[in-house]
Specification:
38% strand; alpha+beta; five-stranded mixed β-barrel; 196 residues; two-stranded antiparallel sheet
């Protein structure tokens, strides 16, 4: 309202804005709106001196450091581990419609839902060790590239893994993981969400 509405007209897409003392209200379409009345203040592109935490700081604050033996299925956790060994690097195909995943989808069609909307995923598997126990860690896509320290995998991923193996085995990592049960082994494996 008032001068705040006039100020908003000068804001461009991509500008950083700070809104103080606003209140939320549903509009006629049921969407939430932020209302800024006479008590409120609106600032565009304020000077901020390193007050925003980094992504790594936010993740460390959000997830408790957990031992591998205490990981629970579907409970996101932060772990500190050493790469004990690297077992596999390959491409897998995932259906974007139903999430079915397989190493090779013959014919380019999902056998579950018949969708052709498929994504090629880089997958790297490693044995992770925190001195008390071990578990398999699975790195997908960007996390797999980051682990291998490459921008893209233009050659066979297993070849990249073999070339990088010496520099990766023994490497200490801090990871945010979502534990899942491996359907083949019945054991918990750490699906890597973030490398810190």
């Amino acid at each position: 309202w008032d001068s705040n509405a006039e100020h908003l007209e000068r804001v461009k897409v991509g500008d950083l804005v700070v809104v103080e003392s606003a209140y939320a209200k549903s509009n006629a379409d049921g969407q939430v709106e932020a209302h800024l009345g006479w008590k409120g203040r609106f600032l565009s592109n304020p000077v901020i001196e390193n007050t925003l935490p980094t992504r790594e700081e936010l993740l460390k604050q959000s997830f408790q450091l957990t031992a591998l033996k205490l990981l629970e299925r579907d409970v996101v956790a932060r772990i500190s581990v050493c790469v004990k060994s690297l077992s596999q690097a390959k491409y897998s195909v995932k259906c974007k419609e139903c999430a079915f995943r397989q190493d090779n989808l013959e014919g380019g069609e999902c056998p579950t839902c018949q969708s052709t909307n498929l994504a090629k995923l880089l997958v790297v598997k490693a044995i992770l060790d925190d001195t008390d126990s071990t578990c398999q860690g699975v790195f997908f896509s960007q996390n797999a590239l980051e682990l291998l320290a490459v921008k893209t995998a233009t050659i066979n991923p297993q070849t990249i893994l073999e070339l990088k193996k010496d520099s990766l085995v023994g490497k200490q990592l801090e990871l945010v993981v979502k534990p899942q049960v491996n359907l083949s082994t019945g054991e918990i494996e750490a699906i890597v969400q973030y490398i810190l």
